[in-house]
From TrEMBL, chains A, B:
Official protein name in the record: DNA-binding transcriptional regulator, GntR family
SMART domains with a match to the protein in the record: FCD, HTH_GNTR
One Gene Ontology MF term: DNA-binding transcription factor activity
Record keywords, A-Z: DNA-binding, Transcription, Transcription regulation
Statement: the UniProt record of this protein carries the keyword Transcription regulation: yes
Keyword Transcription regulation set for record: yes
InterPro entries xrefs: GntR_C, TF_FadR/GntR_C, Tscrpt_reg_HTH_GntR, WH-like_DNA-bd_sf, WH_DNA-bd_sf
Ranges of residues in domain HTH gntR-type: 18-85
Pfam family membership, one: GntR
Phylogenetic placement of the source organism: Bacteria, Pseudomonadati, Pseudomonadota, Alphaproteobacteria, Rhodobacterales
Cleavable signal peptide: none
Organism name: Tranquillimonas rosea
Entry-linked PROSITE patterns: HTH_GNTR
DNA sequence: TGTATTTTTTAAGTCGACAACAAGTATTCC
DNA sequence: GGAATACTTGTTGTCGACTTAAAAAATACA
């Protein structure tokens, strides 16, 4: 993982009032999701103080918010750490992810505006571009944004919030395993994305649901296969 | 709503290190859910400072957490208020609530332990007792706990968290309208609760789903009827 | 008298410092 | 020499004060 020393410090930057926490929050969140901060690694308030060139108060507030997002865990009176990836609750994660894929896509098919279709299409193209360039980290990020935008078009913020949280967690998982571009899955995803957008634009709820379901299953299988591949690797070490 | 002056101050209480925020958080959360703090009313950090006898820092942290829960809203640089009840997004609320009722009850039917059944039964009895005493506010609270316990038995914390949030929001809505005990609904709920527990214990997923669905519809209809009754009242004023 | 502008006030955002707590480390006693 | 105890260290939790943004009040102007 990234060495704290190599992290860009910005002590001179005089943050505008009210921008402080937002900056810290966004930066740390991104670093956690991109696995630049390892799950389980300690988060030192004092170091962040130096790094962001501000006092502990705004840093602390940002961390409290991250705790609310489930991305950071604080052990009372003793160290706060980046939320570990809990492999035992992966089945529950998959279940919730699949359901939210379906529900948000269904709702999008019902409530989408033409404007939103355009924005979704843009993200679809962004994903296609990332695939063409074989840029894995960009693929993961844009894919998340693509589905988040669809969820937003469904206009139910209860679902949207949970879904974004699940997508973020998925982002960490994919980052964790999906380090090399070595299969044909992205092409399959791209095709499914196209069909998904088409169904949403046609307001075909049944179709949208079906595609979302298949898409979710595909992703779950992908993650599971990476995990079992990883297990096999580790298992071989004990021979 | 409760006058700040009448609120019990506790300046002397020397809270143990680490208990400060928890106390403030729990207290304020409860007051918001019980509508002792009116939706949209300002939350003054300084007043809370006096009331809880501690500095602004822990108060602030509690508020940040409540913002994360969606129970408090902060307008940047200017006032933080108790989250208003947004009537325009009630349909989305109902949709999510219904889905979570179904999903959590289904999962409970699959994953419940005998222990959990016992705890659920206890809460069922608590609800029955509240109905017998015609204690509306207790009914609302115990009902929430009953369903939250079922969700917990389903053992998917993604669903549980969202569901509890929805139940809490529902608690505010019911409090808002359901001030007098004047109909036969509680009896119907009680019956549905019984059938729900039975289905969960029998591990009958289909049945559990059906009952949960009906139960959710019942509650949604209840809230809607209170709202339309309220609308009629307001409408009559403009004549 | 109505509107634009300045002043005041209120509360949020930030800061540096101190106190308390839990581990790790050194020390003492048997 | 080993274990119990005291000390050191690193961080978190809390505090009181200061700074600044934005609303409300007051004033000036047309």
């Amino acid at each position: 993982m990234a060495d704290p020393k190599s992290a860009p410090k910005q002590p001179k930057a005089k943050h505008k009032r009210g921008q402080g926490v937002a900056t810290v929050y966004d930066t740390i969140k991104r670093e956690i999701l991109e696995l630049r901060m390892a799950p389980g690694s300690p988060v030192d308030e004092t170091k962040l103080t130096e790094r962001f060139g501000m006092s502990r108060t705004p840093i602390r507030e940002a961390l409290v918010r991250l705790v609310g997002d489930g991305l950071v865990v604080t052990l009372p009176n003793r160290s706060t750490i980046v939320a570990p990836i809990d492999f035992f609750e992966l089945p529950q994660f998959f279940d919730a992810l699949t359901l939210m894929y379906r529900v948000t896509t269904r709702l999008a098919a019902t409530h989408r505006s033409q404007d939103e279709i355009a924005r979704i299409r843009e993200l679809r193209d962004g994903y296609a571009a990332a695939v063409a360039e074989k840029d894995v980290s960009r693929m993961i990020e844009v894919n998340r944004d693509f589905h988040a935008e669809i969820a937003r078009a469904g206009k139910n913020h209860y679902y949207t919030e949970l879904f974004e949280r699940l997508l973020d967690e998925g982002r960490r998982l994919l980052r964790f395993y999906y380090s090399s571009f070595n299969d044909e899955l992205p092409e399959i995803y791209l095709d499914e994305h196209d069909r998904m957008v088409a169904a949403i634009e046609a307001r075909d709820v049944t179709d949208a649901d079906e595609i979302a379901h298949a898409h979710a299953d595909q992703i779950v299988r992908q993650i599971q296969s990476y995990i079992s591949a990883d297990r096999r690797e580790n298992a071989s070490m004990s021979l």
